[in-house]
Design goal:
By secondary structure, the protein is an alpha+beta fold. The radius of gyration is 30 Å and the shape is globular. It starts with a helix and ends with a strand.
Length: 852
């Protein structure tokens, strides 16, 4: 046998290579995509598809290949993205398809990876993206009303969609041309708001479908959350759970276009998380109940660079607690737990798509769906929907233990190869390692380190216009900037000494949103903002006045425009009332003359651009001002060492904008959430998930670090520009490397543990013992074992504790297997541990290791 090993191994390698190559060609060169009630049919084959949302503008081209590769390694078949109209057509007939908006390049990367593409052309996206992805300029085209039976809107929408479709056709990227795009979407979640537009909404939805079909792209069109999507357009589901969703026609397959594995963040709010057990439960239930395509929104959330976030108040980070984090690292154990889920479901693909299910009741909240085809293949999903109690059920004369809120997958109706509640994959310990800003040797200010420019509060240069009363902020700036100055003046008569009689004056401002800094006589007196879904706010603060003329300058700010809702484009922002009270007396300034200035002087000069940073006389200093509002800071710095992803640490700053080498990092605002809100240390995955179920970070900054892609850095001479609105300490700004510093895992002895594969229509099972697997990043090793216990340890990664059952040899066993290795595996076997310990207890092995 030994002499035959090498030839057999070589032959096997050749067979695997040829099969993989054939599979690659099949995936990347589809030509015929149809569907029936059960699934998509690609080149005559039914497909069960796992899809992943990766939005190309929310990362950078240098990251795209790695993101797609990580998704594919996670068991994903399809990459999905919206098309972002306002990024591609920033002004009428001015199209942009370069840089982060190079759609063709992104789709070709997907094709080169041998994967499919779902292109949600829309062109409305919502997506927590500024103005829902529709260009702001379109709102000011006379007679335009968004997303209804309105001729100007329909004209511009159709024109842009045709531009995108023709670009994809030109590059032969639709599956009908041999490309990767197998599905396209028109509109987006319109069913949520259609009734708000009355009959015009119904007419618009029908028009949008017909317009899309007229594009003749040769693949199916979808409309998500659109119950009245006309044939042949497929209506789809968006939700945390879609197992009960039914298409609006018996001839359409069951698609889930948005499964939310986390949630977005808003400035000043807590940090939402969705446990991997619940995400896996929702996916397994969907396929159990006849689903055939499921898309994670998001699989990689990424970053709202510049001013692209919507909301308002959506953070610059769009991490979404997704399987791939904002920086491009696989989030463990979520990514790996879902990878194992995908592998298990794929083993059932052929049977699921070629058989009708039989529902078997196993209890009041327990059931199995059994798929058996004419060839004798059988696959089953056994579910326990009880959100509190574990259950043992009898299925086909065999007992199966089901944790609460879980699904077990049996590709042969006998062996459980995966249970959604049993996470055996490792968790990574991720740290942000600070790196002080290193002045570059090419810097002209290397002797000082910083250069500074301070804006004047109020009108710089000449006012843009003067009006009695207030104008709407958005209608005035048309979103060319976040900033609009409202300035006026009033007199305090010395002969009527109201300053003494009335006590300290109080400024009272009311605004439709989103935020405000109030300056009186050049001094920042107070700031206020809305929060969450509440854009409107009130400011009330004591101020200092003087006899004679007093200047009041109110800097109104937007923090991302409305991105969804009926008639959302008409939602305004800016001041509605300004008063000053002196005890029992009030001076109402609302009807005064107000002078207006759009934007900042630094913006007007373009000092954040590479060619504009020298357009004014910066003041060099070794001691930059701290706590100084309206201040621009400039530093020329070296790139942080290594290849780890980079975040800009702004914890010691107030609020503002940041750029590197002219690239827009985004809005920073390390505002803290309330300490009085409810947060959890560890989330109970059991039961229906909602965004506020598993919140963390009470009393902490909503966002401390701001992603700066590695591709934006040069080795030296990097120009970092900061605009600070309120005042902070720029000397405390640093870059931080996002680094995996350790690994944890906890596996129980009843964890499903089969090595399996499918070939020649058979599933091969090789029974093996459950094991803890740990892997450190490339070029690092396990340098220390911080915790190891075989028995009944409790807790989670970083906080494991010993139980009353513990094998004292646990540490030595794990150290022997793992120390100084990049990866290791420790079986829960009698060879390694005292398996007779604590009879009757289901034992676990928990390990935490340091990587360096």
């Amino acid at each position: 046998m030994a002499t035959m090993g090498k030839p057999l191994s070589s032959l096997l390698s050749i067979i695997i290579f040829l099969y993989s190559f054939f599979l690659f060609l099949t995936l990347s060169s589809a030509t015929n995509v149809t569907y029936d009630r059960r699934s998509l049919i690609i080149d005559g084959q039914r497909k069960l598809l796992i899809s992943a949302s990766i939005h190309y503008p929310r990362s950078v081209p240098g990251m795209w290949p790695g993101l797609v590769k990580t998704a594919k390694e996670g068991g994903v078949d399809v990459i999905e993205s919206y098309v972002f109209w306002n990024g591609h057509e920033p002004s009428p007939d001015n199209y942009y398809f370069d840089g982060r908006y190079d759609l063709v390049k992104f789709v070709k990367i997907v094709k080169d990876a041998g994967m499919y593409m779902m292109l949600r052309i829309g062109p409305f996206v919502a997506a927590e993206w500024n103005f829902g992805g529709v260009p702001v300029w379109l709102h000011y085209v006379p007679g335009t009303v968004f997303r209804t039976n309105n001729e100007p809107f329909k004209y511009h929408m159709q024109r842009f969609m045709t531009v995108v479709v023709n670009l994809m056709k030109q590059e032969k990227l639709f599956a009908s041309q041999g490309g990767p795009i197998i599905l396209a979407q028109v509109e987006n979640e319109y069913g949520f708001y259609e009734s708000g537009y009355g009959e015009g909404g119904k007419q618009y939805a029908l028009w949008a479908a017909q317009m899309a079909l007229s594009q003749n792209i040769g693949i199916p069109w979808i409309m998500c959350q659109q119950d009245d999507a006309p044939d042949p357009v497929i209506n789809t589901c968006n939700s945390f759970y879609c197992d009960t969703f039914t298409p609006n026609s018996p001839n359409k397959p069951k698609f889930w276009t948005e499964n939310w594995p986390g949630w977005f963040k808003t400035f000043g709010s807590r940090d939402p998380h969705r446990p991997p057990e619940d995400v896996a439960f929702s996916v397994a239930r969907f396929f159990q109940k006849g689903g055939s395509l499921q898309n994670y929104y998001m699989y990689h959330g990424g970053t709202n660079f510049g001013r692209t976030s919507g909301g308002p108040f959506i953070t610059t980070s769009y991490d979404y607690d997704a399987p791939i984090d904002e920086y491009g690292l696989a989030r463990l154990p979520k990514w790996s737990h879902l990878k194992e889920l995908h592998k298990s479901i794929k083993l059932c693909e052929r049977t699921l798509l070629n058989a009708e299910p039989t529902l078997v009741s196993l209890g009041p909240l327990q059931e199995a769906d059994v798929y058996a085809d004419t060839l004798g293949n059988c696959a089953a999903f056994i579910a326990n929907m009880d959100d509190k109690n574990d259950k043992t059920v009898e299925f086909q004369n065999v007992s199966y233990y089901l944790p609460a809120w879980s699904v077990s997958i049996l590709p042969d109706c006998k062996h459980v190869i995966f249970n959604t509640a049993k996470v055996g994959s490792q968790a990574s310990v991720v740290r942000m390692v600070p790196e002080s800003l290193q002045p570059s040797l090419v810097s002209s200010s290397k002797l000082h380190g910083w250069e500074v420019f301070v804006e004047k509060s109020g009108i710089w240069g000449k006012s843009d216009f003067t009006r009695v009363g207030f104008v709407d902020h958005i209608n005035t700036t048309k979103d060319t900037t976040d900033y609009l100055w409202y300035t006026s003046s009033f007199y305090v008569d010395e002969s009527e000494d109201i300053l003494k009689k009335g006590g300290q004056p109080v400024l009272k401002v009311e605004s439709k949103g989103h935020a405000l800094h109030a300056f009186v006589n050049g001094k920042l007196e107070a700031s206020a903002s809305g929060s969450g879904s509440m854009s409107a706010f009130k400011l009330q603060a004591p101020i200092s006045l003087k006899h004679g003329k007093n200047e009041i300058a109110l800097l109104s700010m937007t923090v991302g425009l409305q991105n969804a809702g009926p008639l959302y484009e008409w939602v305004g922002a800016g001041l509605t009332s300004v008063q000053i009270s002196f005890g029992n007396r009030t001076k109402d300034l609302s009807a005064y003359n107000w002078s207006y200035k759009i934007g900042l002087e630094g913006e007007h000069l373009g000092i954040y651009n590479l060619d504009g940073s020298n357009s004014l006389k910066w003041v060099s200093t070794s001691d930059p001002p701290k706590g100084q509002p309206l201040t621009w800071y400039k530093a020329v710095v070296d790139a942080p060492p290594g290849e780890d992803p980079i975040g800009l640490d702004m914890i010691h700053m107030g609020k503002g904008l940041a750029w590197l080498n002219g690239e827009q990092i985004g809005r920073y605002w390390p505002i803290r959430s309330s300490k009085n809100e409810v947060c959890v240390q560890q989330c109970d995955y059991r039961g229906k998930f909602l965004p506020d179920k598993c919140m963390k970070g009470c009393g902490e900054p909503t966002q401390r670090w701001y992603h700066v892609p590695r591709s934006w850095f040069k080795p030296s001479g990097n120009i970092l520009i900061i605009f600070e609105e309120k005042g902070g300490d720029p000397t405390m700004i640093n870059f931080s490397r996002r680094k995996i510093s350790g690994a944890c895992a906890m596996v129980s002895e009843d964890h499903p543990s089969f090595a399996l594969d499918r070939s020649h229509n058979e599933i091969h099972y090789n029974k093996r013992g459950p094991a803890v697997h740990l892997t450190c990043p490339t070029n690092t090793k396990i340098s220390k074992v911080r915790f190891a216990s075989y028995g009944n340890p409790t807790g989670s990664c970083g906080s494991y504790t010993l139980g009353d059952c513990h094998d004292p040899n646990s540490f030595s066993t794990v150290k022997k297997a793992c120390l100084n290795k990049n990866e290791c595996s420790i079986e829960l076997s009698e060879d390694n541990f005292n398996t007779h310990l604590c009879s009757g207890t289901v034992k676990k092995l928990a390990v935490e290791a340091i990587c360096s």
